[in-house]
Amino acid sequence: MKICVLPGDGIGPEIMAQAVRVLGALDLKLEMEEALLGGCAVDATGNPYPEAAQKLARAADAVLLGAVGGPKWDALPREQRPERGLLGIRKDLNLFANLRPAILYPELANASSLKPEVVAGLDILIVRELTGDIYFGQPRGIETREVEGTLQRVGWNTMIYAEYEIRRILKVAFEAAQKRGKKLCSVDKMNVLECTQLWRDIADEMAKDYPDVELSHMLVDNAAMQLVRAPKQFDVMVTGNMFGDILSDEASMLTGSIGMLPSASLDADNKGLYEPSHGSAPDIAGKNLANPLATILSAAMMLRYTFNQEEAAQRVENAVKKVLAQGYRTGDIHEPGTNKVGTREMGDAVLAAL
Amino acid sequence: MKICVLPGDGIGPEIMAQAVRVLGALDLKLEMEEALLGGCAVDATGNPYPEAAQKLARAADAVLLGAVGGPKWDALPREQRPERGLLGIRKDLNLFANLRPAILYPELANASSLKPEVVAGLDILIVRELTGDIYFGQPRGIETREVEGTLQRVGWNTMIYAEYEIRRILKVAFEAAQKRGKKLCSVDKMNVLECTQLWRDIADEMAKDYPDVELSHMLVDNAAMQLVRAPKQFDVMVTGNMFGDILSDEASMLTGSIGMLPSASLDADNKGLYEPSHGSAPDIAGKNLANPLATILSAAMMLRYTFNQEEAAQRVENAVKKVLAQGYRTGDIHEPGTNKVGTREMGDAVLAAL
Ligand SMILES: CC(C)[C@H](C(=O)O)[C@@H](O)C(=O)O
Ligand SMILES: CC(C)[C@H](C(=O)O)[C@@H](O)C(=O)O
């Protein structure tokens, strides 16, 4: 069980340190090795996904990532920005299936900006395609052309999906729905985009093979509304890379505690990259303030999906539930009457709960 | 002051009837003529934007639209679906600037799924580009090709913006911000899409000409989150057609009373199409249940933007505020202790309040 550990930028190293401690306490034969990805890799090598990281990530069974990016690297040319490292590793490892749970922990219900009755018990799984769509589609670029009689800059990108890409992500989504509430909502914009008309057609064709799953379709604008209006109507949602980027972030924020939400990005053989849903939070980096629980829960997802260690995964998840019940809170989820702790102390509490 | 009236489908004719009554009571020299758009036009002529509507709409100073679409027409081929009528008239009349206010009326604060303190006093204006982007970009289509050694269907669309398109919508947005809270948030996905990198570059260039407006940039995934987390941070938001479709619907739904929200779609000379932000609600069509206020408020926007009749616009808006204060509510915004009325009775109440 080889794990490539990529702490990344901002709060990445701090939260990763706690996840590594938790994994180390599990009595599993885990080999962990570190490399640089993102802004720190740009600083050290000029490349956000340098060769050392590529080698280690390819050879590993799973990758555990902290977070990448920060204002320090915003002015760099496109190809050197930290997020290119993230896009690069996703594509390089063929991690086409991004699983993002949006779960509201009962102890943290107050953190939501939504009314308690709207979000209590929320448990949605968003399945986002991660290696296709307008993120990687060609042609793309900015160039100067003659438009309406004058020379002008024009910028363009290509949204594109081939049948096999749509089938394999829908398969993941149908199977996830079978293991959960058996409801799958596929999100598209078929009334405008041919690309997503194909998506809907294929979903309908595949539905026959999953008679136990109730498939529905929703337009992306309506989905953005329904997530706000009545999010508990959803069980599993599946959509393309671009719409999934938007909707999964919206869904996470419904909980108000994005510092709690893990994610998994899998290839066809359950090799995966696991990372918290939140960003690198450069403003609080290095201050022992960040919430390490999303990273710890990402490690639990890794144990489940890549290593098939369901028991160990549940041990970690239960330890997280226990520290919440005990009242431990980092600043992002703190409220009066609970015990405010730092990143390390939260790690200590999870270890104790294990 | 020539108005082309397009009642459309579903609840369209009922809500339009009330807006027409209100306009008729204003002592303005308004000429109104009706035509078919959407599903009703498909039924009558086979074309969702038939020639009669084209002629009337082109010759008019403004277009007032009810709503289009319904399940009845969902199985038709692409080119005959009601929404093609809507896309067709937008493009035909060059209505590139879509203005969508998301306003929370104090009397309706309970209707929101968000906590009162998060949305009280909400007043955002979303400016969405409406005639470009991936909605109209070429090439597009679905075809069978050889992909990875087999014949497969592939679907694709093109996201594209030329400089002049970006400049003219940003101008509308900067000017709108000048007349409001002087804050403009431009939404893009510049870290992934070249098309929106150009958008951000041009916004930065133009900012110099609007020193009184504070311009900020936000990535679309973050914008979808921030609208849920803390929507009152926004004054005016501007974005492209696709992201605007998603974010403006999300923003409307924050109020919980989308039956109250009007919209305007303008060309470069303030000719405009005005329509409620909600859909055609076929399930309640013909039952005197629909809320006509968004259509009435759309008529008020028309008086303001196209006809420069600020006083008349405010008269209508004040009448709507008055009926809310008096406790009149259609089913969509009804709560115990208020006076539940039908579509026609709501129109009566607005007329009385005028
Ligand atoms: C950093 C960025 C390229 C990335 C994306 O858009 O996929 C991020 O927003 C995410 O969702 O993981
Ligand atoms: C009906 C549809 C084509 C349309 C759009 O996507 O623009 C609608 O959702 C809207 O926002 O007016």
As residue ranges, the low-confidence spans of chain A are none
Calculate the terminal CA-CA distance of chain A, rounded to whole Å: 21 Å
Radius of gyration of chain A: 20 Å
Q: Total helix count of chain A?
A: 12
Estimate the strand proportion of chain A: 15-25%
Oligomer: homodimer
Tell the overall outline of chain A: globular
CATH topology of the domain at 1-96 and 260-354 in chain A: Isopropylmalate Dehydrogenase
Greatest interface and its participating residue counts? A-B, 66 and 65 residues
- Helical fraction of chain A equals 25-40%
Bound small molecules, which ones?
3-isopropylmalic acid
Indicate the topology.
The structure is a homodimer of 354-residue chains.
Chain A: E1 2-8, H1 12-24, E2 31-34, H2 39-45, H3 51-59, E3 62-67, H4 82-92, E4 97-103, H5 116-119, E5 123-129, E6 141-147, E7 150-162, H6 163-179, E8 183-188, H7 194-207, E9 214-219, H8 220-229, E10 236-239, H9 241-254, E11 262-266, E12 272-276, H10 293-305, H11 310-325, E13 328-329, E14 339-340, H12 343-353
Parallel strand pairs in A: 1-2, 1-3, 3-12, 5-10, 8-9, 8-10, 13-14
Antiparallel strand pairs in A: 4-5, 4-11, 6-7, 11-12
Helix pairs in contact in A: 1-10, 1-12, 6-7, 8-9, 10-11, 11-12
Bound molecules: 3-isopropylmalic acid (2 copies).
Structural summary, described in words:
Chain A has 354 residues and is an alpha/beta fold. Chain A has a domain of 191 residues: Isopropylmalate Dehydrogenase, CATH 3.40.718. Chain A contains twelve helices and 14 strands. In chain A, helix 1 packs across helix 10 and helix 8 packs parallel to helix 9. Chain A is globular, with a radius of gyration of 20 Å. The first copy, chain A, starts with a strand and ends with a helix. The complex binds 3-isopropylmalic acid (2 copies). One 3-isopropylmalic acid (IPM) sits at the interface of chains B and A. One 3-isopropylmalic acid sits at the interface of chains A and B. Chains A, B: This is 3-isopropylmalate dehydrogenase. Chains A, B: It catalyses: (2R,3S)-3-isopropylmalate + NAD(+) = 4-methyl-2-oxopentanoate + CO2 + NADH. Chains A, B: Homodimer.
